[in-house]
Design goal:
The complex is a heterodimer. Chain A has no helices and 11 strands. Helix content of chain A is about 0%, strand content about 55%. In chain A, β5 and β6 (about 55-60) form a beta hairpin. By secondary structure, chain B is an all-beta fold. Chain B contains no helices and 11 strands. Chain B has strands spanning about 5, 10-15, 20-25, 35-40, 45-50, 55-60, 60-65, 70-75, 85-95, 100-105, 105-110. In chain B, strands 2, 4, 5, 9, 10 and 11 form a 6-stranded mixed sheet that branches. In chain B, strands 1-3-8-7-6 form a 5-stranded antiparallel sheet, with no helix packed on it. The termini of chain B are far apart. Classes of the chains: A mainly beta, B mainly beta. Chains A and B meet through β5, β9 and β10 of A and β5 and β9 of B.
């Protein structure tokens, strides 16, 4: 069966510090991968999605970047965090073709102070 | 342009009552309509989903009603329980559009004992 792992669960970082959040998927190959952000009490905002290694599409201009160095690994990064980067970050995956389904990770609560 | 519009933003229902959440979509090419349930501090989890070739799908106390001509679908929670208190998101997707989901803005459901 497929599983998605996301870490860390919580993170408190000072303004101006770098960020690296990691997401890995097990039990499948060539998944579509997504990074979402959820502000407190708000909806889900798609930040990045990837259909393959090194292929990243950005949905909104921002202070963040994403990378996919391996087939089942998706990383969200920032060189210098802003206060506005605080939020709940969610990784998700879906089958690359021929199937539906969208599975979220457990999320990372990021607080920038 | 918001692809999926969800209402209400919040909902309070007495235990045993019926909770109804509505969504409307724009793109007639959408062919998969899932509902996700999210508890505080957790990632959204797939609750139930429907394809446009059926008008209703029921799983236990949860039912999706789908109106293709009106481009609307709704989630009905029968005999609502305090444990159903969560945020619910509707979504829409096209199978061959990299499975990118368009989410509604979410409905926070509070079921009072």
């Amino acid at each position: 069966s497929q599983t998605i792992h996301q870490w860390p669960a919580t993170l408190v970082q000072p303004v101006g510090s770098p960020l690296s959040l990691e997401c890995t998927v097990e039990g499948t190959s060539n998944p579509n991968l997504y990074w979402y952000r959820q502000a407190a009490g708000r909806g889900l905002q798609l930040l990045f999605y990837s259909v393959g290694i090194g292929q990243i599409s950005s949905e909104v201009p921002q202070n963040l970047s994403a990378s996919r160095p391996q087939d089942r690994q998706f990383i969200l990064s920032s060189k210098k965090l802003l206060l506005s980067d605080s939020g709940f970050y969610l990784c998700a995956w879906s089958p690359d073709r021929g199937g539906y389904g969208y599975t979220f990770g457990s999320g990372t609560r990021l607080t920038v102070v | 342009q918001q692809q999926v519009k969800q209402s209400p933003q919040s909902l309070i229902v007495q235990k045993g009552g019926i909770s109804i959440i509505n969504c409307a979509y724009e793109n007639t090419a959408f062919d998969y309509f899932p509902w996700y349930q999210q508890f505080p501090g957790k990632g959204p989890a797939l609750l139930i989903a429907i394809r446009p070739d059926v008008s209703e799908k029921k799983e236990g106390r949860f039912t999706i009603s789908f109106n293709k001509s009106a481009k609307q679908f709704s989630l009905h929670i029968m005999d609502s329980q305090p444990g159903d208190s969560a945020t619910y998101f509707c979504a829409a997707s096209r199978k061959y559009n990299f499975n990118k989901f368009y989410f509604g803005s979410g409905t926070k459901l509070n079921v009072k004992p």
